[in-house]
Amino acid sequence: MKIALRGGAVTGMVVISLSLLGVGILFFLFGGLQDPQHVPYQLVGFGFGASLVALFAQLGGGIYTKAADVGADLVGKVEAGIPEDDPRNPAVIADLVGDNVGDCAGRGADIFESTAAENVGAMILGTALYPVFGIKGILFPLIVHAINLVASFIGVLVVHSREDQDPMDALNRGYYVTTLLALAGFAGAVYYMLQGRWWLLACGVIGMLTSFLFVRITEYYTETRYRPVQSIANASLTGPATNIISGLAVGMETPAMPVIVISAALLLSYYFGVRGLADSSITDYAKGIYGTAIATMGMLSSAAYILAMDTFGPITDNAGGIIEMSNQPDSVREKTDKLDAAGNTTKALTKGYAIGSAALAAFLLFSAYLETVHGIVAQRFADAHQILPGDWSFTNINLASVPVFVGALLGAMLIFLFSSFAIKAVGRTAQYIIEDVRAQFRENPGIMAGTSKPDYGRCVRIVTGAALKQMVLPGALAVLTPLVVGLVFKNLSGSFHIHIPGEYSPVLNGHSIDLAGAEAVAALLMVGTIVGILMAMLMNNSGGAWDNAKKYIETGAHGGKRSEAHKAAVVGDTVGDPFKDTAGPSLHVLIKLLATVTLVLAPLFL
Amino acid sequence: MKIALRGGAVTGMVVISLSLLGVGILFFLFGGLQDPQHVPYQLVGFGFGASLVALFAQLGGGIYTKAADVGADLVGKVEAGIPEDDPRNPAVIADLVGDNVGDCAGRGADIFESTAAENVGAMILGTALYPVFGIKGILFPLIVHAINLVASFIGVLVVHSREDQDPMDALNRGYYVTTLLALAGFAGAVYYMLQGRWWLLACGVIGMLTSFLFVRITEYYTETRYRPVQSIANASLTGPATNIISGLAVGMETPAMPVIVISAALLLSYYFGVRGLADSSITDYAKGIYGTAIATMGMLSSAAYILAMDTFGPITDNAGGIIEMSNQPDSVREKTDKLDAAGNTTKALTKGYAIGSAALAAFLLFSAYLETVHGIVAQRFADAHQILPGDWSFTNINLASVPVFVGALLGAMLIFLFSSFAIKAVGRTAQYIIEDVRAQFRENPGIMAGTSKPDYGRCVRIVTGAALKQMVLPGALAVLTPLVVGLVFKNLSGSFHIHIPGEYSPVLNGHSIDLAGAEAVAALLMVGTIVGILMAMLMNNSGGAWDNAKKYIETGAHGGKRSEAHKAAVVGDTVGDPFKDTAGPSLHVLIKLLATVTLVLAPLFL
Hints:
Order of helices and strands of chain A: HHHHHHHHHHHHHHHHHHHEEHH
Oligomer: homodimer
Radius of gyration of chain A: 25 Å
Largest sheet of chain A: 2 strands, antiparallel
Structural class of chain A: mainly alpha
Distance between the termini of chain A: 55 Å
């Protein structure tokens, strides 16, 4: 248990440290100490790079793992009639490789990106507070994360578990220790760096509470003992159709509570931000947004520990598999089974955590986008030696204006289309595996007879190539849609814009700057984020609930294994697989990629 | 064929005429001729009433029809082992009644509401054009719809079909005649009432084109001969799980093209509106929005004919059933089968049409909401004998402000939750039926033996009561969410509002009016509408595609009836049923209900 968690902790620590070091080193290399107000904008490229890699890791990994899983099962169990994970199946190694590619690497890249994006976003907002805190406000997020790393490290060290204990209790104890230490560190950082403004510490506490509530809500929707999973298991009694219907109904219900929590967290941290900075001269909006940024930091404060818990899952899973293959005594098996069940829970919880932090980070990046557009316009005026009116700010994304409404419509559509592409990519890649396995069986009849070994490597190569190829279309969709929308709407302000009396576009060289492109992209980003969060919750939680409904029936309920109810539950589980392991987690990354891609491309939209 | 269509036409004509008469008579009774600028606002109640009734008709009807269908099938076919529609099943009459309640009454209420909402919305916008057109601009929508009724009537009359012809060809011919006549009538109305501003006629043409494209796109996604249905049928070969996955992937893909069409239609009609009214003194925004209102009228111009086509479906369906029961010769059967297939297609097409018109009508109602809020503020100033600054307008729904963002988040969440409730209501109501049928079998063993008749009436009563009860929760959700959001955010402007330099809230009696509630509700409405449109498309089209994939396999493809592929396709069809007949169409109505409820409640949010 300790070994598994510490194995996971290595990943967690390394990922967060690298993300932190990357941002920190770039900040100093770019001369952040001399010019702290402009360098954060240049770090956006780092966040964008992280997003792009994360999309490839998560989407490609997700396609890989599920395609290998589905393909191996269909061609092995259904066509050839050999059991799951039978060494005669040429796709079995690809299936095992997929578990690591998708679950560990994918989630690591996801959290790496969340941290990087949040650091960069918070630093950009920190520049707005430069008059108040100086460079300390900009470096605050980096320092807080360094403290959190230490807190998580200690949290991992305190996890001890006795034989007779539920491993979840031990893991939860570590989580509480981490959170308390992070809170103490946060308070210290606020005291020394932010002039002891305790309202800002309250923002951080809100973030921590949000992360706690998200984890608990996910637990409610995906754990066997609560109503949602029970209702799916009951519905399995009347066949696969009712199982699917009730799973989808549960999935559609899941966003409700998290949305209310996020809404409350945003409103409160905004309000506390305004209170905490009441005496400074910046606008209320900048104060409030800085408050939400600190809440995001609070939410991410236990990221390293959560990631250690997440990676803990696959490690115990593989340990269980090895113990089974090597014929260890049953008592050993029981222990790893308990750990395995805890691993399944932590995997679901981290997804809930990841989507919550993605939601907060996205709102932060959205604000950073508005700041960036403002910065670009200011730069143009500076270049032309003209003066930007000091009271102008780019904060007007008006849903009643047609380009903004159309941008919003396209943002929502993008999420649906991306999900569709991601799900279809799994199906297509699985098809390649099925064809290859069939070909191997045909070419070498010794495989089925057990006399010769199948070519595992060929399957791995094929699924790798296919996953990479199938990833191109959804990836391109994510990057190109904001680009196309921004460029198409670039010159539409003239007749499409709502003239708000008093509101104006700044006039440069006699022409007012056209903001329709930048505004349409902002709406695309924001509504895309909203819909993406809800869709990801629907997919992650319905997938998890289907999976556990199946497991619940396997424990003997409703007739147990080999009953009709179990068959129906297996159908639900299979539908849930691409939901929770490909499309859902890819949406987390898509949300952040949309935010960073618009940040990087912003100059093109003006 | 003629009889079926004319039977449908009666519904179509009566529904549209009543809607038109209702709005028209109320307008005159309220003294519209004396005070044309204020009376349209008072008609909002009519639209709200229509929405509420439509929600009950559509949602209650949808729950009724699907619960009776699912319940009767499960308890009859699965438990008792008697064939579908066997008279020994006590729920069989409830099932047949449900077909009429859900399909005919529901859709009729839907279109009634679209027409009523669009009329009221367009008249409210017309008041903004009062300086340009006088009362003619306000009455224009009523006159255009009256002309359209005549056009649809003639369209229905020209439908003749010979024995050897595809009935769809004849129906399409009627559709083209209706559209051409409506176009001519539109041109006449523009000439006499809108000073012959031909750019405005172009807006109407865009609406007609949009309706045409929506129908064609729906056809692509739900007809057997195209890729989407084929891909679902292929996926059925590998079992129910892959059938469900590919059906959901198709469903998520479906919004893409309609969204692009709607976006283009909005942008073009807005632009044409601005061009058409270039010489008048009102703001560009009012001009553009009036353009989109005229496009909506264009889209709804063939509503009566489309509704006739829609009601045609159930009529031919029942005719086929009666012919089968009464042992007519096969040649008669073949004719009605052809008509029945055409009926299925028209049912899917009208749903595509209904969602398209709901989307345009919602944008219109959103603009009407902004106008109404402006009117309320103006009234308060008038009551206090103060002067509202003439340049102030309520058009600023800024996504970067926290209350607006939270409102948007809650709007999207509402759609997901409503869909979940609607789907679950079907399951619960089906449960009541199953219990009653079991009880009847127990109480009276003569039913199964065929010696005594079951109590059909008891089943009908139970499902009616249950459907009405299950409807309460989603219905309350739709009405209460905007109310709660508006009231909660009513007094938050203080610290939460973004201060846009130059933008201001008007000051009354020394206090600036707090707009946060009205703005949050506007965002809820708008993002709820966007997500609702996409969700409804997903559900309608995936449901239709699953249904037709099953029908395609039943024609003999992939092994035909009784093959494994057919069993898998039946699972998909069952999942699709509550999608396409309960949740999807209820979302059309929900969108419009949200719009009218916010219009009616607007005074409470200020």
